[in-house]
Write a structure and sequence with these properties.
This protein has helices spanning about 5-10, 30-40, 50-55, 60, 105, 120-130, and strands at about 10-15, 25-30, 40-45, 65-70, 75-80, 85. It is α+β, with helices and mostly antiparallel strands. The chain has a two-stranded antiparallel ribbon with strand order 1-2. A hairpin with an 8-residue loop joins strand 1 (about 10-15) and strand 2. The relative contact order is 0.16.
Length: about 130
């Protein structure tokens, strides 16, 4: 995500119909909406770069309702049972427009803090995961 990410970038929008003689548009699901319908998993990377309006638009999806209302087509979409949302962010101290997220929003996730891998960690990963290539 970025500071320019709009909720419609994730959910979808009306797009021109190819080959139509008259200008006409048809709703096209975005990546998040497709994942919701099919039960896929989604990673919202750099979530703390997203505008507040985009995050607020995800509230009903991330709480017990597990749904999104699409005003453009007047439809509420319920998330498939298998659908999962993961989010990642870098620390606010990294800069670049990152902001602290409200606790009420962060409480919708299980927090896991990762530190940089040591040289020994990297060696272990390479020697066990890619031994044949070494």
């Amino acid at each position: 995500l970025s500071e320019q990410t709009d909720l419609l970038d994730l959910l979808g929008s009306d797009l021109p119909v190819a080959g139509s003689e008259v200008a006409s548009f048809k709703w096209c699901d975005g990546a998040l909406l497709r994942a919701m319908r099919s039960g896929d998993w989604v990673l919202l990377d750099e979530i703390n770069l997203a505008p507040q309006a985009t995050l607020e638009g995800l509230n009903a999806l991330l709480d017990h309702r597990r749904e999104i209302f699409l005003p453009a087509i007047g439809q509420t979409v319920m998330a498939h049972r298998g659908f999962r949302v993961f989010a990642a962010q870098n620390p606010v101290s990294t800069g670049g427009g990152r902001k602290g997220l409200p606790r009420s929003f962060l409480n919708r996730f299980t927090r896991v803090v990762l530190t940089a891998l040591s040289s020994a960690d990297l060696h272990h990963i390479c020697s066990h995961g890619f031994a044949a290539a070494l």
